[in-house]
Amino acid sequence: KLVAEVLIGLSRALCVPVTAVLVFRFLANSNRVAVSRLQRQAYGRQYPLLLVRTDGSTVHIRYKEPKKILMLPLDSNTLPEAERKARLRRKFPTKLRAREEEDAFGKLDMEKYKKFWKK
């Protein structure tokens, strides 16, 4: 009885890899492409990318577009009030007031150059 249990356990242990190999060979068949669609959520190539988080830490990820670095946006609600206002001032600068430009010919004496106009 003990020998039979050992043989059954041994046969189960040996059969699992064999069936796994057979199933894998079936899934790796080239005809599978024509029978079914690709079983993935996202299709196509993904490129390596360095993701920079808001705290400055970096993570290497795969992304759909070929870029080098991707920075996550900073949450302005977590910043101190002074820094938040400074960032807003840099983002939306005040428009300069338009100065009245002086006429370029206002300071010139036209009578002085009148001789050049006569024929």
TrEMBL record:
InterPro entries associated with the record: Ribosomal_mL55, Ribosomal_mL55_sf
Pfam family, any one: Mitoc_L55
A molecular function GO annotation: structural constituent of ribosome
BP GO terms, sorted: translation
One Gene Ontology term, aspect cellular component: mitochondrial large ribosomal subunit
Record keywords: Membrane, Transmembrane, Transmembrane helix
Entry-linked PANTHER family: 39S RIBOSOMAL PROTEIN L55, MITOCHONDRIAL, LARGE RIBOSOMAL SUBUNIT PROTEIN ML55
Protein name (Swiss-Prot/TrEMBL): RM55 protein
Organism: Cairina moschata
